[in-house]
Amino acid sequence: MPVGWSRRALLGAAAALGACRGCRRPGPPNIVLVLTDDQGYNDLGCYASGEPEESRIRTPRLDALAAEGVRFTDFYVAAPTCSPSRAALLTGRYPPRCGFVEDTNLGPGDLHGLPPSELTIAEVLRDAGYATGCIGKWHLGTADGMMPRAQGFDTFYGIPWSANQKPLPLLRDDAVVRRLGDHPILVEEFTREAIAFVTAHREQRFFLYLAHSAPHVPLSIEPEYRGRSARGLYGDVVMRIDDCVGALLDALDAQGLRDDTLVLFTADNGPWLQRGVRAGDPTPFRGGKGSTLEGGVREPLIARWPGVIPAGSVASALCSALDFFPTFTALAGATLPAGLRLDGAPLQPIFQAPETATTAYDAFFYFAQGRLEAVRRDRFKLRLPVPERAQFDIHQALFDLAADPREEVDVSPAHPVVVADLRARADQMSRALGLPSAGGAAQSPAK
């Protein structure tokens, strides 16, 4: 049980509402997707490696969630920055396909965003009878037709962009609740709203997208929670997220919804390494936010669905945030428009057999700044030359991720056939999206 407010709040809610426990209801599950902001692969206890136990961030509730479900080792986001990563997550489509041909992170005054013409998870689930709620950071545009309620969510409580962008309003639906200061403390507040949402909709199917704005800077936490982590304020904030995830899980238990709910936890992209000790840790990978090195795009993913996902399992199959759309919509039994082009694959085979299921991807493509920067197939990853992104050490090289997760040894001389195959796949994808070819000019989209 988390410390502080959550114990009192949950006991009070359970007493007031007379929550009951029961068996799993027939039909599709509730879905709770928790997303954090700028978090490293090594920032959860159940993922931590390469450092003494005493210097790790302690995350007992997320560790327990992994022990009750599956922990993924090769899970990717579709971009190394916030807005395009979130757009791809909600649409199941690579960023250039869903309107993000440049990876500009959106802010006040931007007219760009997730196009209203894109179909989101929330729209499909709402039409399938789900209550849909978005709580936390949106960051997908504020122009007409781009806010959460126009993109399929029944309710929204959160901020329109990152917590370091000003002015920063806190919104309920489209109305301003209050203006936030320079160091807003929001993890607890967003969690209270999440608990209220699942409680209010306990008698119907619901989809909750809880997109925390932490541990993105500015790092802020209540004074009583400071100093708990050996990793400084950043570690304290991650521990507070862990507390609050625990509070939400306890609320599901109190409402008798544990067995009826698929819970997932992940992050939008890697840590902001330029912030030094104020940022997260991508170990065992190199790179962070903004980079298509593994540390910028490989993230934790934990999933729990009691009675369906085997407890304590580890899945090494390559998968990505693009998979949430086909997974959730299939679970809901939803009908999708004919001709809709999705880039993800359903996760159900991995949920059912995490240890033995293989990837559904023939290849996975790494995008940043509207450019295709790398492609992975099986254990090999080909990084493509992008001179405009020289600060991220982008030149053509082939890496064996199984043997060299830090991408330090170019093995292309030993595998010319693999290089040729991955280069051809990259050119084919670039052509399909009308993007510049690897190291070349823009191409016309494939007919």
Task: Annotate the secondary structure layout.
Layout (H helix, E strand, L loop, with lengths): L4 H13 L12 E7 L23 H8 L2 E7 L5 H10 L29 H7 L3 E7 L17 E5 L9 E4 L2 E5 L7 H14 L5 E6 L20 H23 L6 E7 L26 H4 E7 L8 E3 L3 E2 L3 H8 L16 H5 L11 E5 L2 E7 L2 E4 L13 E4 L15 H18 L14
Parallel strand pairs: 1-7, 1-8, 2-10, 2-11, 3-4, 3-7
Antiparallel strand pairs: 2-9, 4-5, 5-6, 8-9, 12-13, 13-14, 14-15
Write structural notes for this entry.
By secondary structure, the protein is an alpha/beta fold. It has helices at residues 5-17, 60-67, 82-91, 121-127, 187-200, 232-254, 294-297, 324-331, 348-352, 416-433, and strands at residues 30-36, 70-76, 131-137, 155-159, 169-172, 175-179, 206-211, 261-267, 298-304, 313-315, 319-320, 364-368, 371-377, 380-383, 397-400. The chain folds into two domains: 5-352, Alkaline Phosphatase, subunit A (3-Layer(aba) Sandwich), CATH 3.40.720.10; 364-433, 2-Layer Sandwich (Arylsulfatase, C-terminal domain), CATH 3.30.1120. Helices cover 25% and strands 18% of the residues. Strands 1, 2, 3, 4, 5, 6, 7, 8, 9, 10 and 11 form an eleven-stranded mixed beta sheet that branches. It has a four-stranded antiparallel beta sheet with strand order 12-13-14-15, with helices on one face. A hairpin with a 2-residue loop joins β12 and β13 (371-377). The longest helix is centred in the middle third of the chain and has 23 residues, at 232-254. The protein is globular and about 60 Å long. 54% of the residues are buried.
